[in-house]
Amino acid sequence: MLSKKTKYGIKALTFLARREDQTPVQISEIAKAEHISIKFLESILLLLRHSGFLGAKKGKGGGYYLIKEPKDINMAKVYRILEGPIALLPCASHNFYEPCDDCNDETICAVRRLMMEVRDNTLMILENNTLADIAF
Amino acid sequence: MLSKKTKYGIKALTFLARREDQTPVQISEIAKAEHISIKFLESILLLLRHSGFLGAKKGKGGGYYLIKEPKDINMAKVYRILEGPIALLPCASHNFYEPCDDCNDETICAVRRLMMEVRDNTLMILENNTLADIAF
DNA sequence: CTATTACCCTATCGGTTTAGTAGGTTAGTT
DNA sequence: AACTAACCTACTAAACCGATAGGGTAATAG
Questions:
Q1: Which superkingdom (chains A, B) (predicted)?
Q2: Which of A52, B47, B93, B98 could form a disulfide with B87 if both were Cys (CB 3.0 to 4.6 A apart)?
Q3: What is the pLDDT of residues A78-121, one digit of tens each?
Q4: Domains by residue range for chain A, with CATH
């Protein structure tokens, strides 16, 4: 199940992408429009800024803004930053691989086999979608 | 992320499917082979029995056994019983649909759009895989 | 220069879920 | 009748999630 963090993060990115001009938007404005707790959203936007998706301007008239074109924002990257691994099992993950401690031989593990198939497919979808694709 | 419940459940089904004869297998034997806590596995197997995948025999020489052919056990059904919804968001689910309380208009929600695409694809994979497909 | 604005950071907390544990009960087999 | 293994209920520790509180800091307008 997708965490609210990821859901809110993508919603915020979408909100910014759908604006005409790219002037900074206050956290409170996004929070109000998308019905998100201000403080929680704050931490999410901060993370997205640290990850290179957003820029921030301080002081009066400040706020957050997209630093890249929506069509250049890859949803797989966004997902990994916000949610973590795309795979449903650590042993089926590329970027976050970890062996199972209960598994005798992961090469014949049926669960892993199935979850890797799911993973490959989900990854493909996320890689092939940009923010522009889902926002417009 | 997949719960251990689901992981253990599928591992147990696989273990049973891979046996030559279909004589009952004790919980403790499966638990030992797959490194699963006996009591936890017990509750999982009970659930799988109530859901029509397993049969059980009591008393000496008793245990659990597959009630259907592995090729007739659909992984989407197994997943839904053990893990719950396939969709990553309730608003993107068929069998467990629930609207988001924070969403203004779900028809234009970018997150939902993306998650429905993921859902459709994951569902297809699970529907097209039987226990026989992943066990052998 | 200074007050304001709004981002930035740390800490905490209640609620829920997860995984595992304990102990006893019931029913079938030998 | 004795034994065995599934069945059922209840409980607990730990982890995680979402939210909240409160203050610090930097940039900007005037």
A1: Bacteria
A2: B93
A3: 999 999 999 999 999 998 999 998 888 999 999 999 999 999 99
A4: 4-66 (1.10.10.10), 70-135 (no CATH)
Q: Does B128 touch chain A (CB under 8 A)?
A: no
Q: What is the pLDDT of residues B8-53, one digit of tens each?
A: 999 999 999 999 888 999 999 999 999 999 999 999 999 999 999 9
Beta strand B54-57 with A63-66 is unpaired
Residue A83: Cβ-neighbour burial (10 angstroms; 0-12, 13-18, 19+): middle
8 A C-beta contact, residue A7 and residue A83:
no
Query: Which amino acid residue lies closest to nucleotide C26, measuring CA to C1'?
Result: B58
Best mutation target among A7, A19, A32, A75 (most B Cβ atoms within 10 Å) is: A7
Residue type for B54, please?
L
CB-CB under 8 Å, A118 with B126: yes
- The pTM score is 0.94
Residue partners of B33: CB distance under 8 A and separation at least 6: A104, B15
Tell if the CB–CB gap between B110 and A11 is shorter than 8 Å: yes
CB B67 within 8 A of CB B73: no
A107 close to B (CB below 8 A): no
> Which residues in chain A are closer than 8 Å to B117, comparing Cβ atoms?
125, 129
State whether B122 and A121 contact (CB < 8 Å).
Answer: yes
Q: A27 vs A12, A17, A45, A94, B33, CA distance in Å? A: 9, 15, 8, 34, 53
